[in-house]
Amino acid sequence: MINQLSWKVGGQQGEGIESTGEIFAIALNRLGYYLYGYRHFSSRIKGGHTNNKIRVSTTQVRSISDDLDILVAFDQETIDVNYKELHSKGVIMADAKFGPTKPEDTEASLYAVPFTEIATELGTSLMKNMVAIGATSAVLDLDIQVFEEVVQEIFGRKGQQVVEKNMEAIKAGYEYMKEQLGSNVGAMELEKADGQKRLFMIGNDAIAMGALAGGCRFMAAYPITPASEIMEYLIKKLPAVGGTVIQTEDEIAAVTMAIGANYGGVRTITASAGPGLSLKMEAIGLSGITETPLVIVDTQRGGPSTGLPTKQEQSDLMAMIYGTHGEIPKIVMAPSTVQEAFYDTAEAFNLAEEYQCPVIILSDLQLSLGKQTVEPLDFSKVEIRRGKLQTGELPELESKAYFKRYEVTEDGVSPRTIPGMKNGIHHVTGVEHEETGKPSESAANRIAQMDKRFRKISNIKFDTPVHKNAPHEEADLLIVGFNSTRGAIEEAMDRLEQDGVKVNHAQVRLIHPFPVDEILPLVKTAKKIAVIENNATGQLANILKMNVGHAEKVHKVLKYDGNPFLPHEIHSKCKELF
Amino acid sequence: MATFKDFRNNVKPNWCPGCGDFSVQAAMQRAAANVGLEPEQLAVVSGIGCSGRISGYINSYGFHGIHGRSLPIAQGVKMANRDLTVIASGGDGDGFAIGMGHTIHAIRRNIDITYIVMDNQIYGLTKGQTSPRSAAGFKTKSTPAGSIEQAISPMEMALTAGATFVAQSFSTDLKDLTALIEAGIKHKGFSLINVFSPCVTYNKVNTYDWFKENLTKLSDIEGYDPSNRENAMQTLMKHDGLVTGLIYQNTERPSYQELVSGYSEKPLSEADLTLDQEYFDKLTAEFV
Ligand SMILES: Cc1ncc(C[n+]2csc(CCOP(=O)(O)OP(=O)(O)O)c2C)c(N)n1
Ligand code: SF4
Ligand SMILES: [Mg+2]
């Protein structure tokens, strides 16, 4: 019996690789296993190697596994590209159709299974994926009935016959493989899971759902990998609550339309990846100086320019904190799990309205597209707080006087009215302005308004700005990361502890303003610090040094080849520090 | 009921004496009053340029944004509150150079807002460089030997992009301009009004006199029918775009607002921000 399994299916893009993984994963999720799925894909629609690696476990997993138990291959390239991940007892099941060969330097066993042939005999070669699922079930000694429900849901619309055919394909694959395996059936039998119903979703789904729950009623966006799922989800759901999504002509239009709608009083989101964020920079400054709430998602991918558009990277950090000319107050948050992406996105709308500034939700490709098991979401935790947005009747203004939209207040936040409100008229401009919004170049006013704007976020209230797992008062090592590296860091931390290294872990959730008070004590009490990040220059490490000092302790652990960190990589890099 | 005086604020425009934009401001204020608006029901969104300052000179909600982006901001405001009257405005550089992409897409999107371009064939605020509206051969600081690029024909461009309301005016024709802005506001869909608004400081070619000499009023063309798109195009071509009046209006095509499925009948800004638990449970059930 094993309590963890790593399974990968690979082939050419457009061959149904995704749906194979999907059916396998959903069925196991419903049995109560924790899953983590990560897709390797390239920037084309048909052709090109793609694979879907799915990890199944009886406990929470949020990282790709180091090695592989089962590889399902629909072409030789899949074997050649992936076999090194297989451990010695690993199994390759490859479509007999292409005459698979096993590389010499692996002890894993190869089974040529006539996926396509069996499927064709049953009606259509399209069902080869189902045959593969059946074959996998034999290795796991899994009752194939667990797939029935999912197959019904997916193919039910096409008629009962199609459902039955697909189930037959699964069965045929199971039986064929069972015979091949002989006494090895169930060689990788999984421990039973707890049967609890949990969600299985990608980060982008959670971000979109978080927006909906957080009162977002409008979105303006331009498609881009890996952000598009957010707009695709919201265009399906917003009409039911009176809202909509506009696909704009470009990202500048998207962000400025979002600014216009937020100014108009509607919680509005825009989402993009690096190239789009680069285009949005000027407008982010406009949101800053006009104190118009704005929620922007940046799903980081490999940069610069078009870079590695379908690969993991975390290299937008500095640009998100400092991007836009001039200086504005800004909030940058970085959820590290799919669950948190939901809550953080909902909360971003509160922060944007309370602090009247741009809020950037930083994600990365691994978080946005990686599919994880998520504990049921607690909707009662979602609050709607609109800050100093005025409601009800406003006091009469003197003739021609404007509402003091930019009133200099103690906390820096000024009362806010929206168009349509009687006695709320004021001017909004990206030019420096005085309390009613009229342009002003006075030096004293400039200082008063600048200081007012920065005062807003000097005391920001943010729940759990850093995830601390700090079992040691004095640690040999403090590991720091942000966004999706959390899962791999947690696993590496366990192994380091087993090696006798005392490790504390801080995953930074509020990137800006940097939570100095939360992190500094951990930094002080650690002998060494390893900052784990998917970029080439160590942006988080530099931000950490800038904010809390102790530069001599800080070591950068970087990976920028387009792939997420694996636990063993973090483990070994950290060990090298001792 | 508000009069045009209610749309005046106490800010003194910093335009040069004689600048065409003064009349555009006056026409906008009159049109707003004439269609029966109260100041808080109007939002004027403007770009950057001399003309872009206009939103600060009108007693209404006003948003002076960034160069070239008045249209997406204005469309966002309208989406947020369909009961507001939203006017976007700015210069020829703002709308036909840096913001050209937005202009074409706002036209084809047909959201119910009015866009007023103050077209002086020059960059005023940056002190006299060529604009996409400058004629070939026009000498400016950035084209000392004369512009070698072709000028844009915004009205023809608008027609080909599928505009439902296309008009042009001259800033001294206060009455005509006011009437066109009123018609634009009332039009259900996107209305584009290009206004020849002379820059007396940097454009010594396209002066008030020049326009008086070269413009043809559509009302002087017998039988001109603004519902005939083909004829509108031919007339524009024949007069090299130098006509004033309502060039084209399509009253049949519904505005964007009317076509968005599920779009709230009342202003979206008044939408209930909460979801009920039952609906939320349905949302999450899709991921089990
Ligand atoms: C992104 C950006 N680029 C350049 C400028 C400088 N700029 C301000 S206004 C303007 C052009 C003004 O011309 P136009 O839009 O025709 O307005 P006018 O001043 O003639 O009314 C330029 C280039 C700017 N503000 N922002
Ligand atoms: S420079 Fe030209 S456009 Fe600008 S205010 Fe003066 S006259 Fe008007
Ligand atoms: Mg101009």
UniProtKB/TrEMBL annotation, chain A:
Location of the Pyruvate/ketoisovalerate oxidoreductase catalytic domain: 14-175
Keyword Oxidoreductase: yes
Keywords: Oxidoreductase
Pyruvate:ferredoxin oxidoreductase core domain: residues covered: 475-570
Statement: the UniProt record of this protein carries the keyword Coiled coil: no
Coiled-coil regions, chain positions: none
Stored NCBIfam families: OAFO_sf
Protein name, UniProt field: 2-oxoacid:acceptor oxidoreductase subunit alpha
Organism listed in the record: Mesobacillus maritimus
Automatic annotation (TrEMBL), chain B:
Cross-referenced CDD domains: TPP_OGFOR
Record domain Pyruvate ferredoxin oxidoreductase beta subunit C-terminal: where: 199-264
The protein's required cofactors: thiamine diphosphate; [4Fe-4S] cluster; Mg(2+)
Domain of life: Bacteria
Key words, A-Z: Iron, Iron-sulfur, Magnesium, Metal-binding, Oxidoreductase, Thiamine pyrophosphate
Matching SUPFAM superfamilies: Thiamin diphosphate-binding fold (THDP-binding)
Domain Thiamine pyrophosphate enzyme TPP-binding, residue spans: 48-195
PANTHER family the record matches: 2-OXOGLUTARATE OXIDOREDUCTASE SUBUNIT KORB (PTHR48084:SF4), 2-OXOGLUTARATE OXIDOREDUCTASE SUBUNIT KORB-RELATED (PTHR48084)
Name used for this protein in its record: 2-oxoacid:ferredoxin oxidoreductase subunit beta
Organism: Mesobacillus maritimus
